[in-house]
């Protein structure tokens, strides 16, 4: 069979080919780490980054979208050696093989990160991070030691905040390098020096503040050195660590008694709010003023009451003088009374002696005899009067029960010839003679 001039073949469009290639790359290389130098860096207005990573003999195109590059903590520049975590992909429109970079860090940060984790685990196992060993900060520090660069932004931020919040805090700066080869040794030496001066009594410090401004992991590495960590742990003074920005963490932060997110925040943390304290003091001043006025008013009232009770010394002297006069008069009267009593006693004794003479006795007996005679006469007279009164009473009683007394009241007594009293008219007979006696006189009559 002769060959067909247009045999049927399985053909792919360019789009299909690129799409299959893209799927193949993304399916077999989900995520890789690569290291290289940045070149051809482009930052369009969309916020996405486009660049190449190269080494001595090859290069690969890269894309880092805005959602990923916004999370980077260092400044990316062309010519910079970096390590990138990326996914392999293919840009279908041009068929370009490329890397979609998800994360990037300066070359060497990977090694630094491993060293950081290793030292962190070591010191944590030794107990340098334990909360039990951490010291509390004083509420109102009077003097602080600041271990940082004397020319950096950190010290300016610290001094600005302290001057605004509580300018009376005394600040002693121990200038050190905060990055570079000898920075860690200088920082540790400064911390030890501040403690030594405090312990020797040469300088008084309430705490130590150490830190610096933000930077890359390499820039902050001095605060990840073991010598700095041990100096902080061995410090007798409380240590506040303020290294980098809020997202930066160093070994010094874990060991320090307090970690502040920034140097400015550290200054805020260790210093009281002067304005707030002033407002409190003003409130206390007003309260104290009111209390003092109330106390003064109470004391004034009490003083007035005491003054009303307090007498002038002249008045008290007059009172004592009057009292002395009174006592003198009582003494004279007592002496006079005593003399009079003694005189009366002598007179009584004389009278009693006079009463014991025979003539006096006879006179007394005569007087007693005359008194008895008079008493006898009075007694006889009284007896006679009593007998007369009794006789009179008996006569009155006899008269009261006598028939004659009844006749005096208008009644009459009827009797027969024999003198028997007739009390019943039925006892009479016709022609019988009866005698009727009146109070005055009698009448004889016949019953008809």
From TrEMBL:
GO-annotated molecular function: exodeoxyribonuclease VII activity; nucleic acid binding
Record's keyword terms, sorted: Cytoplasm, Exonuclease, Hydrolase, Nuclease
Gene Ontology CC, one term: cytoplasm
Domain Exonuclease VII large subunit C-terminal positions: 128-445
Reaction catalyzed: Exonucleolytic cleavage in either 5'- to 3'- or 3'- to 5'-direction to yield nucleoside 5'-phosphates
Pfam family, one: tRNA_anti_2
Family per similarity comment: Belongs to the XseA family.
This protein's name: Exodeoxyribonuclease 7 large subunit
């Amino acid at each position: 069979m002769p060959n067909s001039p247009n045999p049927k073949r399985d053909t792919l469009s360019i789009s299909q080919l690129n799409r299959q290639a893209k799927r193949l790359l993304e399916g077999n290389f989900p995520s890789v780490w690569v290291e290289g130098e940045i070149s051809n860096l482009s930052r369009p207005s969309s916020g996405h980054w486009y660049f190449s990573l190269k080494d001595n003999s090859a290069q690969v195109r890269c894309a880092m979208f805005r959602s990923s590059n916004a999370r980077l903590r260092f400044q990316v520049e062309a010519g910079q050696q970096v390590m990138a975590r990326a996914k392999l992909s293919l840009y279908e429109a041009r068929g370009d093989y490329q890397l979609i970079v998800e994360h990037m860090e300066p070359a060497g940060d990977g090694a630094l990160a491993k060293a950081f984790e290793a030292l962190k685990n070591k010191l944590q196992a030794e107990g340098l991070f334990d909360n039990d060993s951490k010291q509390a900060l004083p509420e109102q520090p009077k003097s602080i030691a600041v271990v940082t660069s004397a020319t950096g932004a950190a010290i300016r931020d610290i001094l600005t905040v302290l001057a605004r919040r509580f300018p009376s805090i005394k600040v002693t700066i121990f200038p050190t390098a905060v990055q570079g080869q000898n920075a860690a040794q200088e920082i540790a030496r400064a911390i030890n020096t501040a403690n030594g001066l405090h312990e020797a009594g040469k300088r008084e410090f309430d705490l130590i503040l150490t830190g610096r401004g933000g930077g890359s992991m390499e820039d902050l590495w001095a605060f990840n050195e073991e010598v700095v960590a041990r100096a902080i742990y061995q410090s007798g003074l409380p240590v506040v660590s303020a290294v980098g920005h809020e997202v930066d963490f160093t070994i010094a932060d874990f060991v320090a008694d307090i970690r502040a997110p920034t140097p400015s925040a550290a200054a805020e943390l260790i210093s009281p709010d002067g304005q707030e304290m002033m407002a409190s003091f003003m409130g206390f001043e007003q309260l104290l003023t009111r209390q003092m006025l109330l106390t003064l008013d109470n004391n004034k009232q009490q003083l007035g009451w005491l003054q009303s009770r307090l007498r002038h010394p002249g008045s008290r002297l007059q009172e004592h003088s009057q009292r002395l006069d009174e006592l003198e008069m009582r003494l004279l009267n007592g002496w006079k009374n005593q003399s009079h009593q003694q005189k009366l006693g002598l007179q009584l004794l004389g009278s009693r002696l006079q009463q014991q003479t025979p003539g006096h006795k006879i006179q007394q007996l005569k007087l007693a005899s005359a008194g008895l005679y008079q008493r006898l006469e009075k007694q006889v007279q009284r007896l006679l009067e009593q007998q007369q009164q009794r006789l009179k009473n008996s006569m009155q009683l006899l008269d009261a029960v006598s028939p004659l007394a009844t006749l005096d009241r208008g009644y009459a007594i009827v009797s027969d010839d024999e003198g028997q009293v007739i009390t019943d008219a039925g006892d009479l007979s016709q022609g019988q003679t009866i005698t009727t006696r009146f109070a005055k006189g009698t009448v004889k009559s016949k019953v008809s």
